[in-house]
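Hi Q.,

Before the meeting this afternoon, I wanted you to have the protoporphyrin IX containing FE prediction in hand. No need to reply - just skim if you have a minute. The sequence and ligand are here:
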Amino acid sequence: MATTADSKVADLEKETVEVQKGDHQTTDYGIKISDPDHWLRFVDGSHNGPSLLEDQIAREKIMRFDHERIPERVVHARGTGAFGTFRLFESAGDVTSAGVLNDTSRETPVFLRFSTVQGSKGSADTVRDVRGFAVKMYTSEGNWDIVGNNIPVFFIQDAIKFPDVVHSVKPEPHNEVPQGQTAHNNFWDFAYLHSEATHMLQWIMSDRAIPRSYRMMQGFGVNTYSLVNVQGKRHFVKFIFTPELGVHSLVWDEALKIGGQDPDFHRKDLMDAIDAGQFPKWKFGLQLIPEEKQDDFEFDILDATKVWPEELVPIRYIGELELNRNVDEFFPQTEQVAFCTSHVVPGIDFSNDPLLQGRNFSYFDTQISRLGPNWEELPINRPVCPYMSLVNRDGAMRHRITKGKVNYWPNRFEANPPATQAEGGFTSYPEKHQAVKSRDLSSKFKEHFNQAQLFYNSLSDIEKAHVAKAYSFELDHCDENIVYSRISDRLSVVDLNLAQTVAKNVGGKTVPTKPAKENKGLKAKGLSQLEYQPKTPTIATRRIAILLADGFDNAAYNGMKQTLQKQNAFVFTIGSQRKGVTAESGEVVIPDHHFPGMRSTLFDATFVPGGKHIATLSKNGIAKHWIAESFAHLKPVAGLNEAVPFIAKQIALDQVKVASGKGVAESYGVVTALGVSASEAVRVSKVEKDASGFAEKFIWEVSKHRNWQRELDGLVDEVAA
Ligand code: HEM
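Predicted structure with the ligand bound:
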């Protein structure tokens, strides 16, 4: 049976109900309830007597409530998910027999769950952390799960170390602090004692660990898998998803603040985009190494602490993943979805990657304590292709009813026989092994620093500056000298300058004077996230605020709003009160929010139209801070006519030039115009670099995401965020 994009939706519909008008409230065993608001008790009008244990209706309601929670995931507890479609535009039939990677006419339904790793289920979205990127593909041959991250490498090489790394990063055992943070003694203690983590730590301290949106992150399978084609030839493979919108991050101060201001920032961002029909898309690619070339690299290709540099192993993009449907109910879908690295389909196989081998045990095992032995039967987890086992049955909460007399194989009826390979049966790649049994790893796994240097060298200047700041922040939160001194020392194997900056900032015992390892300056492409800009510049789904008080220029407000919306930006009006603000020309606008209800952190850019309202905004501390904070967070700010001096005053930096005569000016992403009519100001032909109009320039700045030059030139440090 071939699946279609709608197969999973149709499958879930069988289990989906919606309360209809007139549906009476019943107990779980079906009787109608006459009074759900009072426990059955003795009562005489003036006094209440004891409540009666007899009340089966009250007891059922309370019992159900008492057991509403299941254990949260032991890691990646905080997350959100959505449905989508996987399409192939080029067959990979030369390297795999898997239908999902072969058949370009198919549409495979998927469920994707994004997550953070450290925090509990109720922690904030924007913490510094790896993001999970777990994809379940409901293929015609069974479920295929890619349980990946937004960072292509991992902390450890051997799965037996996973409980240690997780315990070290999670809240400390004596006080359960901190939540959603890597900035504490135990994590950095572990980090020093595991030199293999040095590469991953560079990624975690980079902007990759504070994404702007789940829609703007890459996804990596991280581990090495195998692809096997119909001739039985094997290639090693890594899976990569690259977002159409580019890879973008928050800035750290902003991420910290959003953590408190809107802890659901990322999940809302994803849901809002899907609800608005702005479906996020990722290109899907393979990095392939033929089996016979396995030993041709200076690193072991089965070591999950290493990337396969694109210069050596190019990415072959063959498909596309789109998310296009939000869940109907969080618990039975996003909370109960269960991924397993061991879920592969014929044509895809494992490798001896020692991290993957352990993961294959761990996920399958943990689902039993989280969901019980019949977790594969849950609607979100079951395949959409036919599945049948006479042997795997019974256990708590078994749901399916299987008719027939036998529950074993072979049986006298020959019921439920296995499938041959030709019939689609899964066969393992017949790999030969000759080795000595031992608790060890092969020699190439012992080199830990080359790729940490490669990554750091490949970053742009601004990204390097962010890495130094991130280490400094994290180690500043460690209060045991041995922890922060050791880490700042260790950094000298990566880059002396980085090690020195961090040692000075955090008060390391000594400031390193010599590199602990020569850095030859080797770089690789694809590591700096600035390389991933959208192919066509866009401001689609960017959140843009327009600030208003009574007396604003309505033509400029309306014109800009419509212009931005035409480009598919999400525009929000922030006013002095939600009751309504009145334009100079008398129109009343009902703002989406009032100033105390919102913060600049929750928007990508801000526009202030001209008009007499500037006098009011100049006396509003939140509006004034909004501009300064937006500037400090490197966001585009635009002001027209009367708004120009208001903006200049909040930024108050000579280096930032605003329009001083008739015309449009752009300086450090601050776009201003004087003596320009509203209709002239909002004229836009396209999103392009050499735009000359006011709105055009603003849109171009928004499409660039942030103005890094402000920080590189030291302007940010002078403005109070
Ligand atoms: C390549 C390194 C790894 C990556 C990319 C990774 C990724 C993930 C992701 C994305 C999730 C969340 C799945 C979801 O959304 O439900 C997850 C959960 C989990 N991971 Fe990993 N992980 C890695 C290493 C490991 C290792 C080495 C182990 C254990 C040996 C492990 C054990 C777990 C467990 C137990 C869960 C919770 C699963 C659940 O309750 O559904 N992970 N991991």
